Amino acid sequence: MTEQLKQLRDEIDKIDGEILKLVNKRAEYAQQIGIIKKSDTIYRPEREAQILSRVRQDNPGPLEDTRIAQLFTEIMSVCRALEKSMTVAFLGPQGTFSEEAAIKRFGNAITTLPCDSIDAVFRSVESDNAGYGVVPVENSTEGAVGRTLDLLLQTSLTVCGEIQLPVHQSLMASQPDLTKIDKIFSHPQSFAQCHHWLQTNLSGISSTAYINTSSNADAARLAARDEHAAAIASKRAADLYGLAICAENIEDDSKNTTRFLVLGTQEVEPSGKDKTSLVMSAGNYAGAIHKLLTPFSEHNVSMSRLESRPSRTSLWQYVFFVDIEGHQKDKNISRALEELTKKATFLKILGSYPAT
Ligand SMILES: O=C(O)C(=O)C[C@]1(C(=O)O)C=C[C@@H](O)C=C1
Description:
Elements: H1 3-37, H2 45-58, H3 65-83, E1 87-91, H4 97-106, E2 111-115, H5 118-126, E3 132-139, E4 143-144, H6 146-154, E5 158-166, E6 170-173, E7 183-186, H7 188-193, H8 195-201, E8 210-212, H9 216-223, E9 229-233, H10 235-240, E10 244-247, E11 257-264, E12 274-281, H11 288-298, E13 303-310, E14 318-325, H12 331-343, E15 346-354
Parallel strand pairs: 1-2, 1-3, 7-8, 7-9
Antiparallel strand pairs: 3-4, 3-11, 5-11, 6-9, 6-10, 12-14, 12-15, 13-14
The protein binds prephenic acid.
């Protein structure tokens, strides 16, 4: 070993000693906070969002901001686990993008509960089998996830967070020779996200050989059992089911992103940069929607999303899912919501939470 290498490693050893002391000191403080909170909610999304925003802002580099956020998410995850263990339900099986989203938000020091449907994720949190649930709500290529919207309308749960996950699809198989492949398994949304790539690069495989599965991870599981099959799924699923990656980043839009919601039972306090989700409906007359939207413009509230969905109560009646910028405790928002209550035939506030 050269003298210079030894010196650098000695420096790293000293720093590791400091980090070790400091993270444990931090964990002790979290433990004390846990005692003060007693039976109160341990997970505080607004506080975690503020910590992540501060460390990103103060980050001198060379580590990238996203790496720093990952590191601090894990530090908070282990501190939180010391206060109380936490179970998070998600759309399974293991290896789905929903699981990735759950770990992106909560870190690895959680118990994960894979569920076989979006309905089951809602049910797990409603019945207290899990403290929180993670469900997909929209994809930048494919649009809204209807089932999630329908269940949000009925549930007693609150939305207490959002997670944006860049979604990169890979083609994988039990052996790397693509000429042997005669069928492809995947979730319908993933087929749609990779439509152009499949037509250009695998034109020999007819779309009748595309087999829909309930999740990407399930597609990987099925492909692992059949040497003539490939799957479109995440790299994580390939690792999990021992598949070889044949092609990476095959999504047609490199910015392909899925937005997930965190479901819980708590009202989240303002973080300083928040979003509020609500669902409303208007009467069936000319100008009804315009009337519903005026309180937002009058109180200077920005709307980041407006999605219509059949109400499922009567024919051609719609509900509108709306995301606005700010927290329901902000003055302009609470005033707009007060007026909206008078104008809407139905209004349900799903929750305010830190915007990402
Ligand atoms: O500040 C708190 O309330 C804590 O419990 C500490 C802590 C943290 O590790 O910083 C952990 C869990 C909460 O979700 C928020 C922050």
